[in-house]
Amino acid sequence: MRVLRAIRIDKIIVDGYCKAEAVIIDHKISFFGEVNPRTGRTSENIYIGGKTLIFPGTRGSTVGTYIIYGLKYYGHAPACMIVQEAEPILIAGAILADIPLFIVKQEYEELVKHVKKKEQSIILHESSREVLIVE
Asked: Which of 30, 43, 61, 127 is catalytic?
């Protein structure tokens, strides 16, 4: 496994091990209405279960916390989530579901650009202040 890039994490909200293929959603997510916890698919038919979910942040309903927990309950939770900004709804959901959640503000665009360049990027995090993009 070769490390392609290390991205600095600005804040670790829920720490934990994460090694998973990266999936990028280019817009803020409303978990309520846009993510089905029983299937792990977004309204755009993107499967997020077991993936590193990279997205700018969330918008919308307080029910989103329970949708995130539902993803875990039904076995479709992301391996971890990397966001540019985290609202309380996302934070509460990540804590309840024990899904690692990292805020990457300063290098978010660089992370997205690098992951999009590669056909398949794996994100690895092991209790440090950075995420590694590996092939």
From this structure: 61
- The angle formed by the CA atoms of residues 126, 128 and 130, to the nearest 5 degrees, is 95
Half-sphere exposure of 13 (CA within 13 A, CB side): 25
Residue 127, Cβ neighbours under 10 Å: how many?
A: 9
Separation CA 95–CA 78 (nearest Å): 13
Read off the pTM.
Answer: 0.93
Q: What is the pLDDT of residues 36-89, one digit of tens each?
A: 999 999 999 999 999 999 999 999 888 999 999 999 999 999 999 999 999 999
The CATH number that applies at residue 36 is 3.50.30.10
Supply the range of the domain harboring residue 42: 3-134
Task: For residues 22 and 127, give the distance between their C-alpha atoms in angstroms, rounded to a whole number.
Answer: 18
61 catalytically annotated: yes
Using a pLDDT cut of 70, give the percent of the chain over it. Answer: 98
